[in-house]
Design a protein that fits this description.
mainly alpha; Rossmann fold; Tyrosyl-Transfer RNA Synthetase; 14 helices; 5 strands; binds tryptophanyl-5'AMP
């Protein structure tokens, strides 16, 4: 671990969310809701990764709107801009610059093995662009610029963390220690929330079936309706067992929102059937999201405030990012004036 760049003994956390759709309870439970726990003890950077989002075609006005929304959701979920750095990726040019350099230290074969690339390229056959292919390199740049020690993410990002570590180690070995080698922080519960329509598939913000995903901003009755329609099995017992993917997913969601263990939940719903359980899951989810939604609505009415957070965040992020980038440029042999 390289800590020479850090001004304090505090370790660093970095994470990002793409403004590429309406965020789901998968994003909330796998990532966002865990971000606040680090802000007291770590230097935290939380980024709205708009440059990653354009690897898939976006409607410009919607991308811009969602960039504000993700920032507002960060704050609505409890992140205090005075205690951490909240910023937008495209406001800090060092991300794109470091990504280019790291592209030259990343192998074609490594990128070809990324399951997310294989997934997304098979879903977007008309637009398998180079950015989609080198997406993990930009993600490595995001993380390595801040010398992050820990990266809180859902399980689907684990492979991207592994390639980030490989790129950093390769660079450190070729030159001299430059980057901190980051660890993923994947929550024990909620790291992979599954689709309500097909519980063998991950819940995704880009799913076209509206009943597959519960959005953080869905109204209460919509949330309850979606859980009522969640695909389960023909059994009636609320128990976590192999093969009961739908019920297992609902138990996980209920556990995340209530803090109850699986055993407690199984006892609570013994002999009560799926209908009652689905309603209870919908209610705890809607209750937990209500304060987030209320705060979000207030924040979205105050663009000037959101823009001031973006500006302050970009300046703070840029300060750290510039130091790493300048070190990297010197090491690879660029002339520094
Ligand atoms: P994104 O925008 O797809 O998702 C944001 C976060 O939500 C997690 N997540 C889930 N967790 C549990 N269950 C699910 N169904 C679920 N769906 C999504 C993701 O794991 C992620 O933590 N490549 C990243 C964004 C990124 C990034 C970074 C993250 C860019 N640079 C640097 C960390 C560090 C992504 O597409 O996340």
């Amino acid at each position: 671990m390289i800590n020479e760049q850090k001004p304090t003994a505090k370790k660093t956390v970095f994470s990002g969310v793409q403004p590429s759709g309406n965020l789901t309870i998968g994003n909330y439970l796998g990532a966002l809701s865990n971000f606040t726990e680090f802000t007291e003890t770590y230097n935290c950077y939380y980024c709205v990764v708009d440059q990653h989002a354009i690897t898939i075609r976006q409607v410009p006005a919607e991308l811009r709107q969602r960039t504000y929304e993700v920032l507002a959701l960060y704050i609505a979920c409890g992140l205090d801009p005075d205690k951490c750095t909240l910023f937008v990726q495209s406001h800090v040019h060092e991300h794109a610059e470091l990504a280019w350099i790291l592209n030259c230290f990343t192998m074609f074969g490594e990128l070809s093995r990324m399951t997310q690339f294989k997934d997304k390229s098979s879903k977007n056959t008309g637009n398998v662009n180079a950015g989609l292919f080198t997406y993990p390199v930009l993600m490595a740049a995001d993380i390595l610029l801040y010398q992050a020690d820990l990266v809180p993410v859902g399980a689907d990002q684990n492979q991207h963390l592994e390639i980030t570590r490989d790129i950093a180690e390769r660079f450190n070995n070729l030159y001299s220690p430059t980057f901190t080698i980051p660890d993923a922080y994947i929550p024990k519960e909620g790291a992979k929330i599954m689709s309500l329509a097909d519980p063998t598939k991950k819940m995704s913000k880009s799913d076209e079936n509206d009943f597959a995903s519960v959005r953080i901003l869905d109204p209460r009755d919509g949330i309850i309706k979606k859980f009522k329609r969640a695909v389960t099995d023909s059994d009636t017992r609320v128990v976590m067992e192999p093969g009961k993917d739908g019920i297992n997913n609902l138990i996980t969601i209920y556990s995340c929102f209530t803090g109850k263990t699986v055993e407690e939940i199984e006892r609570e719903f013994e002999g009560r059937g799926y209908g009652e359980f689905k309603l209870a899951v919908g209610e705890v989810c809607a209750d937990a999201l209500a304060p987030v939604q209320a705060r979000f609505a207030e924040l979205m009415n105050d663009r000037a405030y959101l823009e001031s957070v973006m500006k302050t965040g970009a300046a703070k992020a840029s300060h750290t990012a510039a130091r790493t980038l300048s070190k990297v440029k010197r090491k690879v042999g660029f002339v520094i004036l």
